[in-house]
Amino acid sequence: MKNKRKVEVIDYQSDWKKKFEDEAEILREILKDIIVDIHHIGSTAIPNIKAKPIIDILIEVKEIDKVDQFNDKLIQQGYIPLGENGIPNRRFFIKGDEINRTHHVHIFQTGNPEIARHIRFRDYLINHPDEAKAYSDLKDELAKKYPYNIEEYIKGKDHFIKEIDQKATKER
Question: 42: Cβ–Cβ under 8 A, 6 or more apart, which residues?
Fold first, then answer.
């Protein structure tokens, strides 16, 4: 099992926000003029819930096709470029390696509906602590059930995420 990444969720860490801010500064320095905005997304952006200790960063850019020209600079900062990685019109990077990741960076061009979806999801759970707790409990249960099967862990969250997406969309 040494080559498999363990699915592990941990209690909320108060330094996750600072880790996001520090990394966002590095990314701003690299991507400079193509950046429109940078957002802390995912469970590490939602206070008091359990999360995999990987900081998710969403970067909105003017032109997605210009991102690839920065791959070498991002590699120098420890990032691994993975292209679209299953989501059209996205650029995805991991920091660390396949087993020990510290950051995920999702880059989308302005206007991509994934930007608003991620932000709505985050904001909805911040504003609905009972549902955030239910999500936290679900993730904890799935991580214990599938400690070395990230696909099943993700599949197990899918229904809940879709429900929250619908509620968050109605609330806006």
Answer: 51, 54, 55, 56, 104, 118, 122
CA angle 49, 108, 15 (to 5 degrees): 30
Q: How many CB atoms lie within 10 A of CB 130?
A: 8
CATH number of 16-171: 3.30.460.10
CB-based contact 134:122 (threshold 8 Å): no
Enumerate residues 6+ apart whose C-beta is below 8 A from 77.
Answer: 26, 30, 95
Residue 50 exposed, middle or buried by CB count within 10 Å (0-12, 13-18, 19+)? buried
pLDDT band at 39 (very low <50, low <70, confident <90, very high): very high
Say which residue, 27 or 1, is predicted with more confidence. Answer: 27
**In the numeric block, which tokens belong to residue 18?**
């600072």
Assign 5 a pLDDT band (cuts: 50, 70, 90).
Answer: confident
The answer to whether the pTM exceeds 0.70 is yes
